[in-house]
Design a protein that fits this description.
α2 packs parallel to α9 and α5 runs antiparallel to α6. This protein has nine helices and no strands. By secondary structure, the protein is mainly alpha-helical. The termini are far apart. The protein has one domain: Rhopdopsin 7-helix transmembrane proteins. Keywords: Membrane, Transmembrane, Transmembrane helix.
Length: 227
Amino acid sequence: MQSWFIMLCKMMDWLAYGSMVVPFLIAHRRRHNLTGGLQTLRFVPLFLLGMYGLMHIAIRLWQYSLPVNHLNTVGETLLYLKVYHDEFVTRRVKRYIRITAAFFLAFAALDSFWLEGFRQINAYTSLLESIVILGLGLLFFERVLIRKRQTSFFDIPMFAATIGIMLYLSGTIVLYLISNDLIAKNDEYSSRMLYLTSSCLLLLMSLLFCRAFLLVQPDDEHKPTTS
């Protein structure tokens, strides 16, 4: 494999995760004006960047970071669930999200300790994350379409953020489904190509998070857009 391609993959990885600082700083400056799901969403970029750093520390110290990957999937999912739990205002939806969170934690533990173990990526848990959060994103879009007919959707902060989340998770479904197989086959080129695609989608999500937080003006208050 050519060295320039390896360097490109590493640079895109660093750029995608490093860019997470920007939406966090924008959100931090507007933190007193954030309500609904945006209050929790501002911690998502910081979490992703922190777990990325922790993963590299684990690789440097032990040449082994899979437990960190497992923890990252669980933490990321719980943050997204909290985002939509805070965004929706009906008790029934909130209750379903809490039940989903409990089920997800139980399945994640089963996957990590029994089904796949800590010697490979928790692909089943990542797939479940994508299905659950994509479902909540679609429900959010439905509520926005019904209740915000006279509003430009792209002027709604959570609409922009949800687009970023859905693009990232839908684009990484294939990555997590076949990554363990590629590692087993020692197919480095295909693995790097998939992770390069993932980095590009993560960078796009970071940009859409920036858009979402910039839509919250310092003197305005964001109200939950769904009920």
